[in-house]
Structures are given as structure tokens and as C-alpha cells.
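Re: [help] complex structure
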Amino acid sequence: MSTRDIPTLCRLAAELRLHAFQAMGPNKAHHFGGSLSAAEVVTALYFYKMRYNPQNITWPERDRFLMSKGHCVPAQYAALAMLGVLPLEELSTLKRLGTRLQGHPAMHETPGLEGCTGSLGQGLSYANGMALAGRVQGLTYRVYCLIGDGELHEGQIWEAVVTSASRCLGNVTAIIDFNGLKAMDECACARTTEPMATRWAAFGWRTREVNGHDMAQICDALDWAETDLNVPAVIIAHTVKGKGVSFMEGKAQFHNASLTEEQHKQGLAELGATLSKLQEV
Amino acid sequence: MAQMRETRAAYGEALVEVGRVHPEVVVLDADLYNSTRTVLFRNAFPERFFDMGIAEADMVSTAAGMAASGLVPYANSFAMFITAHCYDQIRIQVAYPKLHVVLAGSSAGLTQGADGASHQSLEDVALMRALPNMKVFVPADGVETRAITLALAELPGPSYIRLGRYPVPDLFDSSYRFELGRAITMRQGRDLTLIACGHMVNVALQAAELLANRQVRATVLDMPTIKPLDREAVLRAMEDTPLVVTIEEHSIIGGLGSAVAEVMAERVCRARLIRLGTQDVFGESGTADEMLEKHGLTPSAVAGRLRHEFGR
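Output below.
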């Protein structure tokens, strides 16, 4: 399905957030913070922008989405389940022994995943490879790569940034989930992340900044990204880590955390209430 | 006199043959295409050649993305850099999802020569062998190199091929057929078995000749596939001869010697094992021949070391 109806997309993002949160469950460490901050971006890609047929997930012409910040794959599992690529009930098997839903993306296990990530910094290079393969084979698909702002500490990302620009990969769009927090504390504590847009622009990318929880802004930026077929585009999405669960928002401690039953119930209630409100509209 | 060739040269020529038959094959290099001999492919198929610059990690991850989207990439650099410098990328993005990527490690081993320890790869086979799903090949001469290079285009999953810049004579003729995971008996004798790979196959053959002059009769096995190893050939060797000797231009830790030791250690075995190679040390600057001499990997050094085992 593909829709540009913003209220519908907002509702789908709330649903995605709820599914991901539910899958992550209590009493076990999960990457809540970044999975929740990416919900709108992932929703806009799968339900608005991407040329993607859930009934034919190996279609060579499909657009490709790569979760470079692999620990946030619960958000992608939720999207794939909402599209029917995965059974919704399978989401509860996340990280359990024998599951197809590994803690980090395993493309050979899980239908709908395009690559293996989890060791940070490698995704954009891989996305470039997919984009170059499309060019060699005369296919017109686009590649979207979601990168964490903490992940930008990794040097390989900047090798890949040069590759995309010097090979004129306008079919590549990078999206930064700029929530400002890494595993321990603020991303900028250990290494500077600003000036974010200036850095990418200096490497030859087109840049645009959006509120990463504003669906209309995200959709507009995704449209803008494909307007130049020779210059790659980066969308810097300003987000809130742990978005949608009050006690998690903006807190690095919920990057990877084990919730109590009580905390998990509260989170479910808050995300459920948000969804209900959007469903009433 | 057999033709003398470097395996890297045979690889470069074979790659062009691969390109003619396989439109899905692309070649990536990291600013070493003259040395790795991928320049031949670059000239023949410029639209399928990617010089990624001096960015090996980016190159390997890019190759993985290409493999996931319908291409068969051959990624090239010196053996040291394509393995050790990109280990994490190979592990997660190539080996784990079993993508069809060929990693070619050029100028491997002591015979890399004067550049010294930073460039002399003596651990690459160990690193690649430890990865699940990875296949590891160390061809002995130009003929075997060509055959393996052609075969890899059609062999699914990840592979590593180790290549050298040291001229070796062709040991095989055009009747050679490569078989995955199969050792080749080069000569037979009942006193000991020399198991060798790469440049050391020729050294083993010459050493066997020298030993024969002292009435020590050696079987010589060429082991072009280090993983999956020809276990049957190792088991036969330890049953047929009281001494098994591995020879490799690589550390005795983790390479051919270790692979053979692992097979022998799990069986009741009357045969002894001697592992020849570098003895847990780094390389250094020197000519290829000086390096082989220093590490006891010349025919006379090998024969001299082994004839003492027989008191001759």
C-alpha cells in the first residue's frame, strides 16, 4: 500500500511504535530508544515512498531500505509485519532462541531484510553497492539507508559518503535518525556531531533537515530527495530517543534496557492511548 | 622447462575470461589494480570495474551490497588488507548472509618481499578459515589459479583466494580439472607425506626429489582447498606414511598446518606431524628468496630438515 494521507500515516506510525514496543517486551534488554525514534521515518518509507510489493519481496525493481543502525531493527520488523511480509504474531519471538527475528538484522533468516548490519558504520557502503548494482543492471530502484547519529562516529561511514558523492549516486538517500543520544550519553560528549548538514554538504551531498516526527515534513523530504538523479541526498531527521513513552523520552539509559513489567505496561498504555486518539480523528 | 608465472598474473588473465562469460561479474579494487593484475579486467570491461580508492572496508561492504542485488563481485587488494583490514565487514556482511563475494588476496606471504611486516600477510588463511561459510583457496601455480578463478564465478557463497607475486613453474597441464575440497597427489612415496599449498607445492616437489637422492621416498599432496579441507586425503596420509609434513608460506598457527593437525588430533594416529611455515613471527624487509631462506622454506632447507628425521 502507498498513501500520502498524513493522518493515515501518523496512525500507522503509532501502530508501528506499539507493535515494536510490544515485541520488545519486559524483563529482557532491548533497544527501545532508537527503535521508537525511527518510527515515523520507517513508516513514511514503507507506507508512502518506497516502490515495494509485500507480495513479491524479491522483485528486482523494488526500492530497498537498509537499517544501518541494526539494533533498531524492531521498528523494521514491525513494518514488515504490518505489511504482511511477516506474521504479526511472530513479532513476539524477537530475540528468542530459534527465531527468525534476530537481535540484529539477518537477511538470510528474515524475509524482507536487505542486508546484515549490527556492526555499526557499514550500512551506507552496502547501500552504495546495491545502488551501483542497479546502475550496472539498468534498474531504476532507489536505496534508503537509515543511520544513527552516534553511528556517524564510525569512520567507514565517511568513506561511504565519499563513494556515494563521487559516483553520483542520486539513487541513494541517507536518513540520519538524529536523536542526539548514543548508548552511554549524548553523542556529542565523545565526538562532535555538528555541524551535521555542513559536513555532508562539504562531501557533495544535498541536505535537508526535518522534524523526524512530523510526517508531512518527512514525506516532502523523501520527494525532494529523488529530484536529482546525480547527487545523493541526506535527510537529517531531528528526533527524540524513546519517542512516545514519557519516561523514556530523551534518556540514554533506554538505548538498550530491560523494562520491568510495570514500566512495560505503562509504555503500552501510553502508546495505545496515542494510537486510539489518532484512530478517532 | 615449464613456464614460470606469478599466480596473481594468472588470476588477472583468468578474470578477463570470467568477465567474457559472466556479465554479472564485477571487479572492485582498492588502488592496486596494476599490482593485483585486475588492470586487465579494467581495460576489457571498464563499465564493470570499480576502483574504490584506498578504502578497503568500504570496498568490501560495497561488494556485499552488489552481491545482494544480483551481481557477482570479485574484490581485490593485498592479502593483508582484504582480510585483516576488512575482517568485521567480511564477517557480518559477506560470510554471515552467505553472499556470493570473491575476496582475492594478492601478494600474499613472505614472497611479498621488501615491504616488510605491514605488507607480508602470514595470517590471512587463519583469519578466513575461522569464518563460518567461508571457503579458502591457495592455488599452487598458474594453471590451478586459472581453474579456481573460473570456478569461483559459479560457486555460491563467499570465497577467499590467496595469490602471490613469486614466479612459479606451471605444475599442471591443460588437462587439469579443479575439484572443490580435493587434494591432488603429485608424487608417491612410502616414507613421508608432504602436504603443501601455494608456492610451497613446487618447493615440496623439489624437496621430495632431493630426499629421493637419499633414499627417502615422499608422497607430495597439493592442497588447493584449505577449507573445506580434504579430510580423507589427510587420513590416508597418516595411515600410509609414518610422518606427515605440512608446508605453507603462512604462520603454522591457523593455516594449512593447523587444519591438518585438527584432523589428525581427532583420530588414533601413529603418524607424526611436522608443520613448516613461519613460526609465530612477523615478517621483515628482504627479497622473496632471502625471506624463504630465512624461514627454512626452500627445497634444500626442507629436505635437510626432514632427512634428519630418517637419519640420512
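Chain A touches chain B at residues 60, 64, 106-108, 114-119, 122-123, 125-134, 136-137, 156, 159-160, 162-163 (CB under 8 Å).
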